[in-house]
Structures are given as C-alpha cells and as structure tokens.
Amino acid sequence: MEVYYSTDETIWGHSKQAEKLTKVSINRTVLWENQEIFIPAVYVGLSGAVLDLCVKIPSEDMVHFLQKWDTEKRLSLKTSEEYEQFESENPSCRHFRTEICLNGKPLALLMGSSLFWYCDDVVHQTVPQETLAQAKTGTAANGNPDTDLWQNDPDAERLRTAYHCGADGCWQFERLVWQWTGTPVLSPQEITLLFRACPKPVTAGYFVTASGSSDKPVTLIKALYPETNQEYTITQHECRLTRHSFDNTKGISYPEYSQSLLYSISPSLAPELYDIIDCCAGDTPRMSGIPDRTCSHTAAFACASSPAPDKRLAMSSFHFERFFSEVRWRLVFYVTQKPALEVRFPIL
After folding, report:
1. Distance between the two ends of the chain, CA-based, in angstroms?
2. CA dist., res. 260 & res. 120, Å (int)
3. Is the CA virtual torsion 335, 337, 342, 348 positive or negative?
4. Of 87, 99, 91, 63, which is closest to residue 344 (Cα–Cα)?
C-alpha cells in the first residue's frame, strides 16, 4: 500500500504534489486495558511521517450499541447531554491522543483522520433486512438505482485488506500525520508511542440562576467528582445581565445578551477538569432586518476573564431579547477513564 504525506482531504489517497513515504513495518499489537490496538507501520520521508493505527472493536459491543441507538433514536438527538450520552456509549468513540518518538526524537502532530469498517455480523444484526436486500441489487424501494445504500467505505476496506485485519470484529483506522521537530529520522531503529485517553464529560447536576440576584455568596450546587468521590461546591458571588458588542455591519445580526455568573469552586479544581454550561442553546444569528431569517453563522462567541484570582466566570448562551429571567446550568466533570499507556518497540 502506498502512503503519501498529505495534510488535506487526500490523506487516505494519492496526491500528485505529495511526497511518497517509505514504509517502516511495526506489526505490533498492544492491549490497553480492554482496547486492542494494532500498529502496522509508520511511513517516513523528508516532509514528515504518517502513523497508521488499527483499533479493534468487538462485534458484540457494536451490535449492542446500534440496537439500543437505532436510526430513529440517533436522528432524534437534540441536547448536548443526549449527544454526550450517545458518544460515551459508542464503542467507536473511545477517543485517545497519541504521541510518538522515533529514535527518541519527538514529532509534532499536524492532523489526523479516521475511518470505520463494520463486519458482517454487525451489519446483519443491525441493518434492516429490506435495506440489505436493496443493497444486493443496488436499487431503492422504488426499483431505481440507489448509490446511498449502506456499504463499508472503500478506503476502510482497502486498509483492512492491506493490514490483514480480521473480519471477526469492527475496525477503526486512524491515520496521524506528523512533522519533524528536528532532523528527519529516515531509518528509525526504535519507536515509542504514548496513548492518552481523552477525558469524558459527565454531567454531575443542575442549578438555576437569576440575573440581578443578591451579591451575597450563595451555594448553587454540591457534587461528587466521579473518579475520586471528592465533593465540590459551586458558590455564586455575582450574577448579572451582560450586553456584548458584535460587528453587525455585514448583514448579519448576532444575539448580544447573556448572563454572566461569577462563582468559585471549593476545593480548588483545575479548569480543564470541569465546566459550567448553559442548558439552553441560545439564539441563532440572523439576517439583519429580517427577524425570522436565520443564516449559516450558527453562533456568537465572547471571551471574558474573572475580575478576581480566586473566582471564575461563566457565560450563558446569547439571546436577542434582554428579558430572560433565569438560566439553567449543568455542572460537567471531565473524567479520564484509564491511565496512559507507553510502549516502545525496536524496529528490525
């Protein structure tokens, strides 16, 4: 299989302008708790390096998930909490970050992409029989040709075949593109990989605030951090309506009103380990002068910092009307489900 150094949509294919890389076989499988990762090869060249990873997902796990989250249920997802639950239960969403060293020299990640391949057992148990029958004939229910019927991605099938991945489970193929941070390592003798699980959001509880409420400290919520059972308390110090100024000169009007919540968390917790999120999505930007005409710009964004080092600031979603009395928030903890794994292999 030929692999080229590409940082655009041709990452899985062949770009005439891209450098063809040299394959360095690894052919090692690691077990990261219950996650099986096959490392077939790294590809190197003067432009940079490409690492392919093959993550195996047991067919029974995928069948259970797809039967619970059928097409109708997946299409009905609306809230952030629903999407979080969907992703937390999805066997193909076990996201992780990868770091790599060749001959002890670290590389810098530029981009990554993934493809998914489903085995026959999963397809036959989760895809409606009518759809499977149509797929065999290549026609829709009305008898006309239909190219949108379910099938595995051709690039995923090509990777599975090239890397001799079995058909007894599902596979998630990850392609990571790296750049050299020093002299290119074109003949590596050793590879080191560090896998870090991405934190999973867990909603710990809800609370409501009202603009213009008392500036005296008020306890909003007490909640346990899932990993440690440590109790954390969120205390309100100020809650007020804030108007933000956005550039409305390009025919687009942005919602400008939000609620600003000044709070503290006790005991102290690193900001990357939790978040306070408005349960409401807020208003969508619209075409200026046309109240009911929304536009492709879907969000407004503002950044603000806390006026006191021992307090933090959360901002609600944005609205066009200034008169919204209450905001319902949720407290989200970010949980790392398993420790990092480092592996080192000689390259023969």
Report:
1. 20
2. 52
3. negative
4. 99
Based on C-alpha coordinates, what's the Rg of the chain?
A: 25
Residue 61: left (phi > 0), alpha (psi -120 to 50), or beta?
alpha
Q: What is the mean pLDDT of residues 152-174?
A: 93
pLDDT at 337: 82
Residue 223 has a pLDDT of 96
Residue type, 107: L
Q: What's the pTM value of the predicted model, to 2 decimals?
A: 0.79
pLDDT tens per residue across span 139-149: 555 444 444 45
Contact 192, 104 (CB under 8 A): yes
**Which has more pLDDT, 246 or 12?**
12
∠ Cα 104 109 110 (to 5°): 145
Instruction: Show the CA angle centred on residue 209, arms to residues 207 and 212, nearest 5°.
Output: 170
Question: 3-state SS of the chain: helix, strand, coil percent to 5?
Answer: 15, 45, 40
CA torsion 26→194→51→151, rounded to 10°?
A: 100
Average pLDDT over residues 233-257: 82
